[in-house]
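Let's sit down with a protein and look at its sequence and fold side by side. We need material for that, and I hope you will provide a protein of your own picking. Once you have written the record down, we can walk along the chain together.

***
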Amino acid sequence: MDFHLGFLPDIDPLKQLPAACAAWEAVATHLPKLLLGNTLRQRVAALPAFPLAVLESSAQYERAMLIISFIGHAYLWGVTPTTDRLPAILAQAWTQVADAVKRPAVLSYASYALHNWQRLDPTGPVAL
């Protein structure tokens, strides 16, 4: 592993997973609206199984971990009343992807910060 970007990944994080993951990406993209409208849990219940077989690179697994972790934490804590249970569709996806990236199934700093950024200028250096 080359550490020319410090703790950041060697390649820029992906902004989207393959098309087969579109339903999961849509929930992640609209998470604030789904929480505000109190429809997140219904949308998660309607999700298809996460298509783990389409993930081919570490960047895709990291993107999957990012979106599933945000969805998972929002499902547990973002809706009143909170819950201590996840539906199987979400729990299975989260544990499978977490196993693949060798981290626990939680929203970790590695997901929400280290693998969740973009360059201000796509052709320039990493900059604040």
Summary: The radius of gyration is 15 Å. The longest helix spans residues 58-77. The mean pLDDT is 88. Helices lie at 22-29, 31-36, 40-45, 58-77, 88-101, 109-114.
